[in-house]
Every structure is written in C-alpha cells, then in structure tokens.
Amino acid sequence: MSVADSTVAGRAVIELDHVSRAFKVPGGTITAVDGVSLAIGAGEALCIVGESGCGKTTTGRMLAGILHPTSGRLLYEGEDVWRKKGNELSTFRRAVQLVHQDPYASLNPTRTIFQTLSAPLYRHKKAKGNRDATNRVRHLLDVVGLTPPDDFLGKYPHQLSGGQRQRVAIARALTVDPRVIVADEAVSMVDVSIRISLLNLLLGLRSEMGVSIVLITHDLAVARYFAREGRIGVMYLGRMVELGHSEALVSDPAHPYSAALIAAIPEADPRITRSKERVALKTAEVPSLLALPPGCTFHPRCPLAEPGLCDVQIPELLPLPADTPREVACHVAIRERRPAAELLA
Amino acid sequence: MTAAAIPRRGDRTLPGPIEGGLEFLRLLSRRPSGLVGFAGIVFFLVLAFVAPIFVPNQESGDVNAIYQTPSAQHFLGTDNTGRDVLNQIVQGGKEIIGVALITAFLTTLVATVLGSVSALVGGRFDAALVGLADILLTVPPLIVLIVISALARPTNFLALALVLSLLGWAGLMRQVRAQVLTLKERDYVEAAKSLDLGLTHIVFREILPNMRSYIVIHFVLAMTGAIYAQVALIILGLVPFSGKNWALMLYFAQTQGAFYFRDAFWFVFSPIFAIILLQLSLVLFVNAMEDIFNPRLRSS
Amino acid sequence: MTPILSVRDLSIDYRTRRGPVHAVRDVSFDIEKGETVAIIGESGSGKTTLAVSFIRLSPRSARITKGQILYTNDRETVDIQTLPDDELRQYRWSECAMVFQAALNSFNPVINIWEQFADTARAHGMKDSAKIHARAQELLDLVHLDPDRILKAYPHELSGGMKQRVLIALSLLLEPQLIILDEPTTALDILTQRSIIDLLGQLRKKLGFSLIFISHDLSIAAELADRMITMYAGTIVERASVTDLFYRPRHPYSVGLLRAVPRVSGAMGSVASIPGSPPDLIRLPSGCTYVPRCPLAIAACAEREPDLVPVDTPNHEARCIRWKTVAEQVGTAEVAVAEKIATA
C-alpha cells in the first residue's frame, strides 16, 4: 500500500492524477511538471521541496487551479475539476487558495487592509452591511495575529512589514473559508526571526479549522519543521522523486537526490555543519529543461546510476518496504529494498 | 477605538471630497512647481469659463484705435480693427480649453477602454486593435489632421475634438494595454481571481486604481497635445472658425500682417503668451502628479 | 599585529523627510589578517549600510556622523573617509573588493565574460591584454570553471552558481587583501550554495585574504566564520568566536535568532520566532533597543542602552546587563541553543 493510500485513503480533498505541464519557450517546449500524482488529505500539512526549476511552483499552481495541466487530471473531492463549469468551478476556485511568495507584490498597494479583506466577504455574501463586515474583518485579523485589529483596518500595505503583509495575505485566503491553502515559498521573503511564527500560524489553521496546507519551499529545514507530522515530497526536474513521512525522509532519504540535498544543506550549527558527510555527485551541472536526459533525469549526476537501467527507463514512484512507508522513484533503491542514504554510506 | 477607524462600506473608505481636496493640496505643496502649475490651471479655467460671464463680449472695433500699445483703457492694447486685446484673451480661451478638455476626455476614455479590453481579451481582437493603433501611429498626425480637416471641414469645436481624439488614442491605448498586461499578472490580481471576485472588481478595483496616476497624467498630456494641434490647424486656416479664440487671433494677426507692425506686439504676443503659460502650467502640474498618486508618499 | 580593517565608533545616518535614520550606531571592531568574520542581522539591522561604508559606496543620503574606518596594508594605514578619489579607486578592488548580492543580475548583458574581466582590469591600470587574459584564466580555473568556455560566454548563458563564481573570480582580479561578500549564497540553490561555500573555504586557505560576509543566514556563518558579530537596530549586540556565539550566546537577541532557525540534522529542539518587530530607527527607545522583544527584560534595561561588556568566555562581548541570566539558561555545553532550551 502506498503512502498516499495509507494516509489519505478515500478522503483526499484534492488530488493531482498524473499531471504534466509544458510551456512553450524560445528554443522549444519545456516540460515543467512530468506525470506527478499527489493526493492531499483533509487537514494534512504537506511540503513540496526542490530546487529552482524542479516544477514545485508549477505543481502548486496546478493544485490551486490557476494553471491548467497539459495532461492529467485535477480532482476535487473525487471529481475532475476541469470538467466542471460555471458555479461548480468557482466553488472549487474558492476552496483552494494560494498564498504567494512575495508579500510586497501580493497585496494591492492602492487598497487598504479593510478593502482587501472585505471585498470577498461582500462578494460571497458572507457579510451583510458595513458593521458586519468590519466585525468579520476584525475577527480575521485576530485569527492571523494582527492585533489589535483596529490598528490595521485603515492601513495600506506599504505601512506594514513583510511578515504583517503575509499575515494579511493569509487572512485574505481565509475570507472564503478554503479547504486547502497552497503556500508558495510563503516564508522565504520574511525575516528569519519571524518565519517560525508564520509557519505556526499556518499549522494552527490546519489544526483549528481543518484546512489542508501545502507548503512549497526550497528550504528542507523549514519543510521538516512544517511537515513534522506530515509528508514531504521532493521534486527534481519536473518529477516527484520521493514522497514520505518527513522525519524518515530527512533522517534516511530514499532517493539519491534527496540524500545529496540533505547532505549539502548548510546548518545553523558549526559542529554539525562542518562535519557533515557530503554526497559526491558526478557533476554539478543541472541538465537544461529543454534537453532532459532519458530515463531517470538524475542519472547523469547520480553516484548510484547504473548504465543500461537508469539512463533508459523512467523510474516510477513506488513504495519502498521499510518501517515507515514512503515512495521513491529510483530503480536501485527499489531493487535493493533500501533507502539511497544507506546505499551511499 | 476611534471613529476614524471604522471604515465606510465597501470601497468607499477613501476620504471625502473636502478631506481629499485638502490632502491633494498638502501633497501638491511638497512640489512647489506642481503648485504653480495647479494655480496656473485654475487661473486659466477661471479666465476661460468664469471671466466671460462678467466681461461683455466686444464685437465691434474702433477704427480710430487700431494697433494701440497698452494703456489704462486697453491693458493689452488693441488689434487691427481696434478691438481690445485683453477682451479677446478673456473671450478666446473657452474654445481652446474646451476642445482640449473634450479631446483629452475622449482620447483617454477610448484609449483606456480599448487598451484594457485588448489586454484582457487578447487573441485576435487584441491583434486587430494593436494593428490599427500601429497604423495610426506610423502616419504623421499633423498631415493626417490637415487632410481630414481639409476634407471634413469640422465647423464646430465638438467636431474638431472628435477628429483630434480619433487620431490621438492610439499611443495611449498601446501604453494602457502594456500596463494592464503587466498588472493582470500581479499576484494580487491572481488572488482576486481565485477569490472569485469577478471581472468588474478586477478591472475597476484591482487594475485601474493602479493606473490612476498614469491616466490622469495622460489626460493632461492629451490636453497639451490637443492645444497644439488646434492652434496649428487654426493658424493654417484649415478650421473655419468664427468667434474668439487665441489661435484665431494669431491667424488674423498673420493674415492681416500684424507681424509687421511694431505696435502690434501685444496683439501678436498676448495669445502666444496665453498658450505658452497654459501649456507650462499643465506640464508643471503633470510633473508633480507622480508624487500625489504614490500611496507610499501619501501617508508619510 | 595591526588589524587589516579597524572600525572605530562608526555612526551613519540617513537623511529622510521624517528625520535622520540612525542606521549604524557606535560600531567598533577589528578584522585581523586572514580572518573570516560574519556580520549577521536581519533587514534593517544596519549590516549592509556598515559594509558599503568600508568601500565608501554609501548612498548620497547617508552621512557618517562619527568615527573612522582604518585600513592597513604592508606599507601604511589609511582612513577610508579621507582617501582622495584616485587612491580610493586603487583601494577598491586592489585592496578591498566587495561582491554584492545584486551583482548577480548586474552583469552587462551585451558583453561577454572576457570583456567584463578586461574592462575591470583596464579600469585599474592593467594595460597588457595578454596578461589580463592569463590572469582571468588562472582565476576562473581557481573557481573551478572552464576558462575557455566561460570567457567566451555571455552572462545569460551562465547559471546563478556560475555567475557567482565569475563574480568571485573578478573580485580576486587585483589580489585584494580583504573581500566583503553581501549575502553570498542567498539567491542560489542548495547544491550550488554548498559548492560556493566550499569554494570560499578553499580560496581563503589558499590565498589568505580576510573575509567579511554579511548575511541573515546563520548557517553560512556556521560554515565559514571564525568570528561573528550580531547586529541589532544599527549596533553590535554581541561579538564572539563562532563556537561561542552558537553554543554560548550571551545576548537574548542572538539566542532568539539561533532558536528561530530550524535544522535538518539532529534534534529539532524548541524552535520559536522572536515576537514583535525591530524598533523605528528614527525614534529609538531610550534604553536597550531589544527591550520590547526581549523575554528577559527588566525595568533597568529600559533606563539606558547597555555597553558592550566582556562576558564569561574570553574575547566575547555582549550588550546586555542580563548576560549572566542568559548564561544560566543556555549553559556552556556544545549543544545547539534550541536543544538546550527544549530540554531545560
């Protein structure tokens, strides 16, 4: 039984089913996301991790229904979203909200916080009249920790700090009572000293309101903290290479790429970071998305790659028998029935 | 909590007209040149639209007092038929400024609507409009104006405004389109889409307010353009206007040979000064606008 | 031995409409030859203002109100502020080079990397093209790039990591004794970050220059620094060796920063943000600037701003009257602060 089945069997709120997304660029077509499947359960906290160009943002935007997949399906409560029309489609739209990376670009500079937060309330008849809207906006500001709320109602975005703006963006997502929030690098542009409090805010929404949160990040330490009770998915060049419970993934990565990534991360601890064992890759060069290698896209860099196997066949994301269930897209790890971290050691 | 903290309904939390006006002047006062420009604009609006109510139009001239130099009786002297120049300056602004205002309004309206729609709809509609705009932009405007005026002979100033705006929208339309194309990719517009706030909200609440400064600035610039175009057409005698008009004064000064009389200095230069001062006021004002519309500067 | 860079009582203000912003206040420290110092702090802590003043590249609105920046080489000691323009040009690059984070995007896109090298070299009096070429090849080799390919390449053909390497190579062109790096790895991917960190470590050993880097990222400091300086609200709040700062911090802000960063390896520990936000640098509070966010603040803290005082470990100073209480909480064992607090 796969991890996805074990954790969210039958109660996936939203699910990507073999989705791919291609973009036309000068010089050809790039496949930003290639055959990713991912089911997100109700109230789940999941992280998608990867380096730039791995397709994590595209995946998040497809989850949020902002980007149409080139192939594959997006399922909301088991139904194909892109076959829906009119009302049903807008119900879905509202059920999944996106929190953007850049708090300086995600709020309209010409609108006050009250205007930003009250517009969806009026539009969707969640507030009647000015007094009701004001009370609801106050409540939302309170939920996201902007207190006292009255200090914020009449402010413009430029009068707030990055962290405060990000809280407003989260409050804005909450105006429509979403089931899922996709947070794309939502903490990477705020000061380090307040990142954890924003992550805690998102985790609180999950535990108190049952909202599922998908956090997209390049920072594995953030992912480990955020998804400590959930799963982390690691992406590389458009494919999901590993998906598993976060502690197992971080302490004993099953895919050689995850292993290399974790070994390379500089840590805020001189003793640990200076004594870390590196995973030596065959090359530092990342293949161009315009000319992806055949087979496993990691094989040109992978120390475990086997000629005739890894450079020919695309590995599927398969369950790896272990104490903690996880899935990995690696021929060698699956065959050896051991995580790559152990094979590399 | 204070009363000020209770926002009014919906989007109407912007300050009322009086507070808004005061805020506008306060911001303008930071840029003295802008204040000068603003004062100039107010002066010319009053001169053109209020003063004529109190100053009777002087129709007939006085053959005994042609080309007089300034005196207590005639502050700016008299013209070739002995009419008071100051009286003509007072009477002659209405049409010029009126045509400029109407032209600017029509140009801005057409350009904003077409530019936004073009950017939002995209596809063939967009391509067709952009193509049309490009054609208009590649032909020299003054020559087209001359041709159109010569053929169509606009006989009233509304018709002239229409002709001017028909020729003038293309540049602004392309700029509005480019602006909307970038604005519609902004994260907050994307957020508005996924909050299902509707197209009307997205256009009028999210996108257009971010172009306010842009639109106002181009409105004023369109006015300056329309003033020059009118003056050119009238001086060339292509618009058979009768009545009083600064440009018409220049036309008569030219056709009646006033340029060759030293004493006609005031007759010739008064309308030129009026036009230059008006244009200068508009330009000074435009330069200060950027500050006023920047919300970052508004609160500090 | 005379330190290569000595900053004494430096204060820098920015003029704004609302009044002067006190971006840097009474900062003093020395950088020894061959030493690597990390200046850490969040946005608005004054770290960037401080660093650009070392090469006199402060914006026009900035004004040094007090203090000196002294640079010493084999021959003489100079005051950066009073350096005549021609000597300043010589000082930049040939004595002290700075690599900005923003520089990754500031390559001239229409000239290739060879021309970028040649332009920089000629601007500093190197005339002989063959010599410049040889030097460029040598440097690119040093940063593990293929010189023949890279020199012909245009900036858009290079990845972020390659550009960062080229920038480092460029900064080494005139063999500076001091290199200042502004957020050297922030914009880069993890594996690239790792290779840049390793590269900087190697170069430092091989070439023996002094290195200052300013960053909000504690992990890079943990990797590379010999000593660390923590800045808050424009001033130094703690100064210590890298191990002391990570395992025996004595200022509550350093403790807060260390706890705010989660880790991938080892125990998660107790991770928490610092409540509140940094003070307004125009109207600074009268006492310690950290009081509004400090869990240990007492009435005395708000009375006057504390001095930077020596604490229990050698060569270690903190601007806190309650450093002993901090010491009791975090102890002296070499365990990450977050873990100690989690188990305490």
Question: What would your notes on this structure say?
Answer:
The complex is a heterotrimer of chains A (345), B (300) and C (344). Chain A is an alpha/beta fold. In chain A, 34% of the residues lie in helices and 22% in strands. In chain A, strands 6-7-8-3-9-10-12-11 form an eight-stranded mixed beta sheet, with helices on both faces. In chain A, strands 2-1-4-5 form a four-stranded antiparallel beta sheet. In chain A, a hairpin with a 2-residue loop joins strand 1 (12-25) and strand 2. Chain B is mainly α and 300 residues long. Chain B has helices spanning 17-28, 32-54, 85-91, 93-121, 123-138, 141-152, 157-183, 187-194, 199-207, 212-235, 246-255, 265-293, 295-299. Chain B is globular and about 75 Å long. Chain C is α/β, with parallel strands linked by helices and 344 residues long. Chain C has helices spanning 47-53, 85-94, 113-123, 129-142, 147-152, 160-171, 190-207, 218-224, 242-247, 252-260, 323-330, 337-343, and strands spanning 5-14, 21-31, 36-40, 62-72, 77-79, 96-99, 178-182, 210-215, 227-232, 235-241, 309-310, 317-318. Chain C has an eight-stranded mixed beta sheet with strand order 6-7-8-3-9-10-12-11, with helices on both faces. Chain C has a four-stranded antiparallel beta sheet with strand order 2-1-4-5, covered by helices on one side. In chain C, strand 1 and strand 2 form a beta hairpin. In chain C, helix 3 (113-123) packs across helix 4. The radius of gyration of chain C is 21 Å and the shape is globular. The chains are: A alpha/beta (345), B mainly alpha (300), C alpha/beta (344). Chains in contact: A-B, A-C.
Name the largest protein-protein interface in this structure. Answer: A-C, 40 and 43 residues
Mean pLDDT across every amino acid position of chain C? 90
The first-to-last residue Cα distance of chain A is 28 Å
Query: At the fourth CATH level, what is the homologous superfamily of the largest domain in chain C?
Result: P-loop containing nucleotide triphosphate hydrolases
Number of strands of chain A: 12
Helix content of chain C: 25-40%
